Amino acid sequence: MAGLQVPNSASGQGPGGRRRSWAELLAGRLKRQKCNPERAQKLKDSAVRLLRSHQDLTALLLEVEGPPCKKLSLSKLIDCDSSEIYANHSSSFIGSTLQDQASRLGVPVGVLSAGMVASSVGQVCTAAAETSHPVLLTVEQRKKLSSLLEFAQYLLAHSMFSRLSFCQELWKIQNSLLLEVVWHLHVQGIVSLEELLESHPDMHAVGAWLFRNLCCLCEQIEASCQHADVARAMLSDFVQMFVLRGFQKNSDLRRTVEPEKMPQVAVDVLQRMLIFALDALAAGVQEESSTHKTVRCWFGVFSGHMLGSVISTDSPKRFFSHTLTQILTHSPLLKASDAVQMQREWSFARTHPLLTALYRRLFVMLSPEELVGHLQEVLETQEVHWQRVLSLVSALVVCFPEAQQLLGDWVARLMAQAFESCQLDSMVTAFLVVRQAALEGPSAFQSYADWFKASFGSTRGYHGCSKKALVFLFTFLSDLVPFESPRYLQVHILHPPLVPSKYRSLLTDYISLAKTRLADLKVSIESMGLYEDLSSAGDITEPHSQALQDVEKAIMVFEHTGKIPVTVMEASIFRRPYYVSHFLPALLTPRVLPKVPDSRVAFIESLKRADKIPPSLYSTYCQACSAAEEKPGDAALGVRAEPSSAEEPLEQLTAALVELRSSMTDPSQSDVISAQVAVISERLRAALGHNEDDSSAEISKIQLSINAPRLEPREYTAVDLLLTSFCQNLMAASSVAPPERQGPWATLFMRTMCGCVLPAVLTRLCQLLHHQGPSLSAPHVLGLAALAVHLGESRSALPEVDVGPSAPDAGLPVPALFDSLLTCRTRDSLLFCLKFCTAAISYSLCKFSSQSRDILHSCLSPGLIKKFQFLVFRLFSEARQPLSQEDAASLSWRPLYLPSADWQRAALSLWTHRTFRELLKEEDVHLTYQDWLHLELEIQPEADALSDTERQDFHQWAIYEHFLPKSSASGGCDGDLEAACTVLVNALMDFHHSSRSYDHSENSNLVFGGRTGNEDIISRLQEMVADLELQQDPSVPLGHTPSQGHFLFGIFCRRLQALTSGWNVAARLQRQRELLMYKRILLRLPSSVLCGSSFQAEQPITARCEQFFHLVNSEMRNFCSHGGALTQDITAHFFRGLLNACLRSRDPSLTVDFILAKCQTKCPLILTSALLWWPSLEPVLLCQWRRHCQSPLPRELQKLQGGRQFASDFLSPDAASPAPNPAWLSAAALHFAIQQVREENIRKQLTKLDCEREELLVFLFFFSLMGLLSSHLTSNSATDPSKALDVCAAVLECLEKRKISWLALFQLTESDRLGRLLLRVAPDQHTRLLPFTFYSLLSCFHDDAAIREEAFLHVAVDMYLRLVQLFVAGDTSTVSPPAGRSLELQGQGNPVELITKARLFLLQLIPRCPKKSFSHIAEVTSRHPPWATWGTREITAAWATCPPGWQCEATVSARAPSLWSEAQWTAWAEDLLLSHSCWLIVGTATQR
Q1: pTM
Q2: How many alpha carbons lie under 13 Å from residue 1374 in its C-beta half-sphere?
Q3: Using CA atoms, how far apart are residues 739 and 850, in angstroms rounded to an integer?
Q4: Which of the residues 455, 808, 996, 1172 has the least number of beta carbons within 10 Å of its own beta carbon?
Q5: Three-class SS of residue 800?
Q6: Residues 6+ apart with CB under 8 A from 475
């Protein structure tokens, strides 16, 4: 049949030779055959058999599907761009193809598909990685893997995938297998991690592989990689699986049957990671190194969120216990002797933070009992790493208060075991544990000295049972001697074990050995203080320093107990050498004894009464103290009552108080309380030595020093008894009845204290509340708060309290006193204030719940209620939300007096209480915006209870959400942001000037009160001003309409008007401090505040510019300028704002020119300031201008530039360019440049002045005079007075040489053009001191100046009279030369000598003056009191002082003045000047 030809076949030719297509042949066949379903099925089966026998998978897929991939390879398949593989490739067809190929190859289809998927996984993993040892997939790799896993899931679902074969194939590519791939396989159910690990032939190798990958994973997590969330999920899943499978309940790694691999691998990996971390810490891992990051991340897996769902099982607890064992036992290299020497370095504070963090995480899962038990078990059964064991002990006592008792019990058992069977290990462990726990301080564990005394200092000690125990103890202590630190040896010597006399040799041998060791260490036994600190960094302090510390500590204990400390009593007996040689000399340091005996005096007297001070030493001390006083010793010594006489009344008072307390809890005794209170009052007077008549004298006002309250010892003891009793009584009464049903006992008790001891009670309350408040316990807080309420109840019967200058008013009512005593500055004081306010308000609401609200107002000061509102708002964010009717809570006093009082819950319960909410509706208890600011400004941020972010959020809420929208009637701002800014600025200024602000230095840079808390408030001011800027119309400058200017200048103006005016020092300093604060506030705000945000054509000079010019001319010129210029900061701030505003106008250059031209007449000080700071100002202005304009600087700025250039050229060796206009600007620039030239070059440089214009020289002379005054007035002036005087002399010489008049500079007024200009440049103080400069230049005046200048005499007399006025007013002292100046300069600057020279100069000048020189003398005399106010009587008296014959001669003009001799003129002028009778000059000149 092969050779048989079929006609018209597809391979043959039809009629005409044309080949027919396969489709035509089929079409023709279909036409001839009828459709038969059975035949169609047979045809399909035949086709499938044909394909199977000749299949080529690659060609088949290309022919049928036509995908972009060229062959059937899953790696190529998943590389296709299509996001869904099965959109273009039929899963069923691929599965069918795999089945056919497996059938043809004779292998199971699952094995074939597993191999193909594993190969594709390997290709995904071998793609380019971002790190040297990657564990995470890239985005592209993750996309490919996702497609591959979807296909694998299809195979699994159709039972065409072998997990075992797949695992085996994966391990063949282990080196390239990524950990994330394993995680995805596990998470998506392709193959679990357990199956994968069980299939590996080498358990050790797979553990090492997992360890390496986990380390890399931890490192990448800490490095904040791109896919950190995936990495954390991976780590969490792996850890959970390892913990769950490695520490499951039935897991027993020691069983004999073949164990499962998974638990072993899990434990192995976890152990490898822990050992790696411990070894890294032991090697001293560097901070932020890769190893450090890995360790930090791994220790984080011990937190609850990492363990996830397995936390509810028992596996984590077993895992933590196992981990703790590994920590304690890994690498036990150190011996016990090493631990004895080094354990001081293993305290909690010195342990590596990562290790302490791990301990704390372990403590979350394990209880203190379990931890101590586990520690005991490990120490008994295994070798341990002593450093980690002892650091764990430190962590235990620091983190668990109950650990002290647990460790104490364990140590007691160890000691009992040790002495029972002489177990050295138990002994070593006990000593190490005790010493380690003691290192953490007395709050965590008792001191080692106390433990050693308690263990061996009595017959009940562990060593007292037998000689064998004694020998064991001293053998052990002797063996420790070579390794002991000096502190422990001193403890053993100073507190030796109690030993029977027959075994005394054992103790003496040990003490000898210990002293020898101390001698080798060069440590004296006497250096051991009474209050040793074994946890201190240094081992031994100097004996003298230690003695001083012991004295202070002993006095402190004596103040609290009123008794000689036990330690001091023991030292006086058992440590006599140290006590006599060091302690007593430190205590008995001679001093001037206070009039009111203080604690040191009382302590010394107590020691003397106890015969603990040798009489000779005490006598020497008294003599030395007497010698230190100015008055004789007998007068200094007062009559003192014998202290023993007061002891019995105090005991009786104590007994009466105890009896009253017992009646508090017995309802049947309520009727006798008043009688018991009367007994207490009587015994109180007896204890204080008061007569019954003493209480009749009423006290009008109580003087109280808040900063240093003091009490006499007797009053101190009595008042403490009363206050303690009141607190105890309140607790006892509250245990049986609420406050409203406790009866009148508290009121009666308070009245007893309001008698003769009220000042002492208030003083002690000041000590407790103001100075020791945070240390008070809850019963003390409750008792003192209730006492404050009852004192307020009787406010009308109590005198006012004067607390000194820190109080706003002269006297305070007693309830307001408590408001002053409670401060809100630090976290501790905030919390204490909250407790006290909560207790006081709650008690008053409970006590007087059925009475009128007026009682509440009398009991509580508004300030206390306001502080409570402030604290609740500040500390509890939930209180900032509006309250609904359902939120109203009931108030219960009962929880407050319990030891575990929850103050936060109590405060919030009070906050929502209905009665309290109604009380807050009263106007006088509203917390206003101003109140809030004053309280907030007192906060010290470095010790605040809020973080910086929390404080900022609180400020934002308080200002914008609470006070700003609140009505002004309720203490808010009515939504007016400008009003809020006004109150804030005033509060800042008030706080800065108040006594609460303790640093007013000029260089504080707006750190009000020396604290940075105000920086936050200033930031809020900046934000509010910026908001105001945005609220304005763009055409209207910031701060209302153009006619009104900025509101800040209004604030400044009002505050300045309220200040005292005048030239006295106090007024000037107060005004200067106020202006400095204004300047600092302005500098912190946008520069647009100074000159506006834009300039308009219709109003080129804004109201804000006018306001700033006025502030400069009227205030800053006098108090914030030096040498004719403002400071650099405010100058630069103005010019930056000027350019910003002008650049927004239509013609910036023209606007700048116009404004600066106006400055020449309105505020020339701005321009002179710019000249002084031009070198630093010019680059800023150039950059700012060129950023917006390509044109050159405006003409007026070029003038400033030209003025500085002229000054620079003038002082250069080259020829100087002509001075630009205006002349006064050029003169100012030259003056500032001259100040920077060295003194020896001045004369040479100033010779060029002969060529300058006259106007320039006059202005330069004026600025030189101002420089001379500044050199005298400013202590840190850059110019020496001698140099400044030389400059003035050189300029004056040039003026005289060119015959240029300069006298007008000393007669400046606002009416002339020159005066209007120069008087706005120079401070008023400088112009007032011009007479000083005039007569300082006497030696420079030209001889014929008086004759040539008609006005010279007029000016000279005017300057002399002004100089005398300055001298009388004391103003010339400001220009007196400081000590150390040359004698020549001192003679020049001494005011008395200057006046004398001036008088002599006038005496010589007057006879030489021509007649026309006297024409203006009347004007001079009329301007100077007292002559301007003289009447006829005074003139007559003055006239009578003339020499005989002068009056008639002058009156009738019998003798012409030209005929007077020089002697006559001199005598007349001297008499005139000495008697200040200027009217003689007037009369004589008139007659002439």
Answers
A1: 0.53
A2: 21
A3: 12
A4: 808
A5: strand
A6: none
